[in-house]
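subagent[fold] <- orchestrator: predict structure for attached chain, return tokens only, no commentary.
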Amino acid sequence: MPPSNSWNSARIQNALSDAIKLREAGNVAFRAGDYKLSTEKYGEASYDTLYLKGLRYMGTIPSKDWTFVQKITEMQFLAHSNEAASWLKYEEYKGEVSRFQKALNATNTAEEALKDHPTAWKSSDKAMGKLLYRRALALEGLEKYDDAFRAVDEAQRLSAEDQDIRRLRTRIDKVR
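subagent[fold] -> orchestrator:
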């Protein structure tokens, strides 16, 4: 019998399932307006997927199963993108690092997940447009208007019909 700390496919699936459940709990909290809880749940889901990714890189988890790599990449992207949305809404947050910087960090990490495995999982234009929109909002909050403009410009290219993106673009154009 293998030692209890070995990673078999059932244990890997359970860990990934836990990350999915945490992301879903974050979605529920976000829809309820509990942005403190949603940032925590999305953060936990992000941490779980990063942990699994780390185990895979260390060779603890075999990387033969490409489906597993795809699922982890997708979960990382979505958890970090949702975490960014939560930080942007979490107005009562008080900490050393602003909520806008935390949102920006989350968008950067989401994009890094795609760069690690560019063929593993491809976000839709709509999902990437949302991520770039969230990045633009974070940059606007940090008063980095030129960077915000570049992000919203790319978001609009990907999601031309999105009214929120259009409104943000107009708002940023006025302060640039």
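orchestrator: received. Logging for downstream: The mean pLDDT is 86. The helical segments are 9-31, 35-57, 66-89, 99-116, 125-141, 145-158, 163-175.
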